[in-house]
Amino acid sequence: MNRLPKWFKQEIPSKESLRLTEYFSQHRINTVCRLAACPNSGHCFSNKQATFSILGDVCTRDCRFCAVKKSAGRDIGFDECEPERITDAVRALGLDYVVITSVTRDDLNDYGAGQFAKVIKSIRAVNKNIKVEVLVPDFRGNTSSLRLVLEAGPHVLAHNIETVSRLYSEVRPQADYGRSLGLLSEAKKISPVILTKSSMMLGMGETQKEVIGAMCDLRGCGCDYLTLGQYLSPSAGHYPIREFITPGQFVKYRDIGISLRFKRVHSGPKIRSSYHAAELSRELEYA
Fold first, then answer.
1. Is 51 in contact with 31 (CB distance < 8 Å)?
2. What is the pTM of this model?
3. Using an 8 Å Cβ cutoff, are 31 and 52 in contact?
4. Is 229 in contact with 198 (CB distance < 8 Å)?
5. What domains can be seen in the chain, in order of their start residue?
6. Which residues sit opposite 54 in a β-bridge?
7. What Å distances lie between residue 176 and 64, 137, 223, CA to CA?
């Protein structure tokens, strides 16, 4: 099932998109847009939107859905200057809403939490009004690491469950569904005012009942935002697409999410966790 439906037609990269791609390359700045081969990167770059990825470009886990390079046990290093380079980019691009994510770094003592905190503080030192959304890994359930990030004061803390519980052993063998839910629940206990967010990719073989069950689990953790998008396999060697979810089904899931009292549900074939993140946040503020 490799032929994309007609609703996946993408924009031709604009001059602004190409300029940003070159800028990030020259300044050694990683974006999840490129690392994870996001289908929306051309659109986002054209509108001066990007999700910065910290802690390098190599992941210590081996999730079958992900295009990011894997460490395979190799020493992958650590760049102390990364927060400053990202802050310089935020200033140069005039951003007022910034999304920061990372590869998973199970090899670090704090699982990379300290780097998240440094980036947040560095950006806020330039302009305290800039809002920073972080999309964090599960920190292996380490509460101290989670607390370190929350104490830096992000506007939104996101952590993606990615898929339903039944598929974790196939799709995310080194992750744990309960641990991810626990992180979102603990975040609300530590900092109730900080908004939380999660995302799922659909089309991996999950049932509608399982999707709704996962949505209920997220609401049970106090999760505020939910995004739902179509899974696209990066290559023949990755986990295969089992189904293309129709736009109408995504609307149905959105309506179910609203009935479950999520503050916002962003649901559609090309939706990704950080896609239109600033717009989602502003919608909530003016609701």
1. yes
2. 0.88
3. yes
4. no
5. 13-286 (3.20.20.70)
6. 102
7. 14, 11, 17
Residue 200 has which token pair? 């799922």
Q: How far apart are CA 59 and CA 179, in angstroms?
A: 19
Q: Tokens in use for 272? A: 């990704």
pLDDT at 73: 73
Query: Between β-strands 30-31 and 97-102, what pairing exists: parallel, antiparallel or unpaired?
Result: unpaired
Pairing state between β 51-54 and 30-31 = antiparallel
Taking alpha carbons only, the member of 53, 36, 33 closest to residue 44 is 33
Instruction: Give the distance, in angstroms, between the CA of residue 250 and the centroid of all CA atoms in the same chain.
Output: 19
For residue 267, the one-letter residue type is S
- pLDDT (tens digit, 9 = 90+) per residue, 128-142? 999 999 999 999 999
Which uninterrupted H or E stretch holds 97? Answer: strand 97-102
The residues with which 199 forms a beta bridge, in sequence order, are 227
Edge-to-edge strands, sheet with 30-31: 30-31, 51-54, 97-102, 131-135, 156-158, 195-202, 225-230, 264-267
